[in-house]
Amino acid sequence: MRALLSPESSSLYFTSINIVSRDPNPCRSRTSLYFLKRDGGCRLIRRKPRSTAVKAVLDSATIEELGLKESDMRNPAISSTYRRSMLPKPNQTVLEAQARICTGPTQTRPLSEEQAFKVLDTILRSVRGELKDEEQVSKAQIGAFFAGMTIRANSFPEETQWSEGERRAMNLFWPLLLRALPPDVIFIADPEGSIMGLGNSVGPQFIGNGTTEMRLVGALREILAGGHLGYEEVQGVLKDVLPLKFEDGKSTGVSESLLSAFLIGQRMNRETDRELKAYCLAFDDELGPAPVADVSSLTHYGEPYDGNTRFFRSTLFVAAVRSCYGESSLLHGVEWMPPKGGVTEEQMLNFMGANTNLSLHQAKELIEDEEVGFAYISQHEARPSLYSLIGLREHIKKRPPLATTEKVQQFIRAKGKESIVAGFYHEGYEEPLLMLMKRRGVHSGLVVKGEEGALSMTTRLRSASTSKGFPVNYCSGFRSVGTETACKEDGVSHQSFRLEVNAMDYDFEPTDTPRTDRSSWVWLLCMAKKGQHTIASF
């Protein structure tokens, strides 16, 4: 597949080459796709016949010849260039500690005494006002850190509870922190006044400010003890606090410390099905009922929103090729998302000049258009409430429950059959993802453990030493059937399946997957100078 960007017409062409169509209608094969300019209304792409075949390989000499400068372009191989500059950056010392302790009961790695001293000293100096700018520890970081410490003390197995070094560091710093921390953080760190051993009464008496925080504090008491919430409780909190409102980079509504503790706490406790359903469905009606596309089938692709940093993401190109066969697809995501901050479909589309600010109704029209057949929807347009959390999500470091549920969205419905395909990495989330797909009422669902937990599979052979967890190319799914042997869920019969895809079974020679962080050719797309044409070949 190659792309041709014409600066004069602001149009980008995708040409599918050597397609052997399985569609009985030959007019829908061997076609080309092009993106209209950003300000050209709702059109994202169209097919356009092309008879010429231009092929070129861009190398450093070609780039130099074009006179391109780094300042003239966003480098899609450096995804951090897409991070919004107005977002305050987290303190790296505390962020590294959060990566160790704000995770699951078996994955948590306790801090050494030296590490704990450094983190607590950093927090103390920050709340005293001794650190400035990027050295400051944000309220969200402090809330997430102490939530992790509290949940570990209250409910984690002995091997991932506090280390002796952490205990000694806390014994030294807590009397000082108690005089410097705000009440909401003291509550998070010691909600019942029993962890620190100083008879703290702030935590037990804390109720929050206003009705919104009162509901959040009530939910947090259960979470910090290692417990779980009901469907209505989770949805009530989310709808109360979102969207976040900011002024001068700071939240003007609910306490960021409390909200970050809520989000990371639920992930550390491993969410129940009802909690995941609440996150998944909470904002379905934010912009009103989902538009219904008049198509016979529609496949929703749920890639991890935080992108890829090591391997190529092929879903955008798969959707383009599928459209040539008359199969409709809907992609969704964001431009940049923590914690990985990798390359996303929205970055690729923006880099190629496509319009990524489509409304749901504009995307519906593209899906229905026989000359288009697929669309991309940004969370910024479809779920502004959830999009408002991006900055806070960077400061809690680890993925919250939303990282799972945002992959199983139905921004547009179809009159015909619908399918959802989602990527996963960590074992234990494949069944919850399939559960959410069934809750969506789709006809079939598939989860794929591709490279980096995305949907792109590998052609390399499975390593003989691989023994822990599912291998790359593991798939699991269901399809709706009318047989007596299928299991029933929500009144619908489903036939389940699982398999490990071996590339050799499909006549692919085993090869190592190219690494985008080591091979620049995958992302070698360039912006053209005015009046010149740039061609990129894959």
UniProtKB/TrEMBL annotation:
Keywords associated with the record: Glycosyltransferase, Transferase
On whether Lipid metabolism is a keyword of this UniProt record, the answer is no
* Keyword Glycosyltransferase attributed: yes
* Molecular function as annotated in GO: glycosyltransferase activity; GMP synthase activity
Gene Ontology CC terms, in alphabetical order: cytosol
**Highest rank taxon of the organism:** Eukaryota
Alphabetized PANTHER family for the sequence: ANTHRANILATE PHOSPHORIBOSYLTRANSFERASE, GMP SYNTHASE-RELATED
What is this protein's record name? Anthranilate phosphoribosyltransferase
The organism is: Gossypium darwinii
